[in-house]
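Supplementary Methods S3. Complex input for the iron/sulfur cluster-bound model.
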Amino acid sequence: MVAEIDKKSGFCFGVQNAVEVVEKALLKGEKVFSLGSIVHNDKEVERLSALGLVTIDHEQFNKLKNCKVLIRAHGEPPETYQTAERNNITIIEATCPIVKKLQSRIKDTWLKTRENNGQIIIFGKPGHAEVVGLLGQTKNEGILVSGPDDISKIDITKPISLFAQTTMSVSDYRNFVGLLRSEMKRKEISDPENHLNVNNTICGQVSNREPHLKSFARKHDVVVFVSGKESSNGKMLYSVCKRVNPDTHFVSSPDEIDRSWFAGKKSAGICGATSTPKWLIEKVYDIISEI
Ligand code: SF4
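Predicted complex, serialized as structure tokens:
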């Protein structure tokens, strides 16, 4: 089997940075807690746990005192920082700079929309850590939408500022904006350009991978997509590959590879999400190239 790794797959710089920050602290022998999984990839979490990283949830975090806690790339709402201050917890800041910037844009816009009776809308996945952090900037007054069915949550007659979670699909976001525009037309909203403020906040590290992965998936007989099952951009990028090449298979670990996928095929492409470590993609490659 001729196998090829997609060179653009693997950690984005936000995740890479978080992993490097925590590795540095662990190598100094410090006890570090990670608030939530540092990355949506069980294999990488296992590797870092073996180095001493302890993953905790918010309930455990609220009970901690006098220790060091890492904030992962997804970021956190303001309450987390307030709790840390109260309990003498030192924050190891690994929020991705792109997410940090988005948080402050949402906060600034929210403060302005309070004056013009507007609404902050966040296009994202319910319960996703980044979304929790983004909504937290608005004291949870922002409205979360995840698809066309949620359009009814929006009062179309009031000014709208729309933001997307960084890892959403560009085409889904575009469709949602189109839907909002047609609703505004139906309601004969005057000055639609000022009424709807669309912010293009999907991260380039994700959106640039979509067209690239399409051509990568098209050129191989079979595609193996490596990602943690919890990864939001993993699910999204997998479906991008699956749409252009139905012979695309999702694996979280090398032992999920099924040899029958390759019967009668000549070439295999191996790719992954922004949360998939390179070493895991390489392990999958080693097995497939020997078939
Ligand atoms: S996908 Fe983009 S915004 Fe999200 S962590 Fe990676 S670099 Fe940061």
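Residues 70 and 92 are 4 Å apart (CA to CA). The first strand starts at residue 2 and ends at 5.
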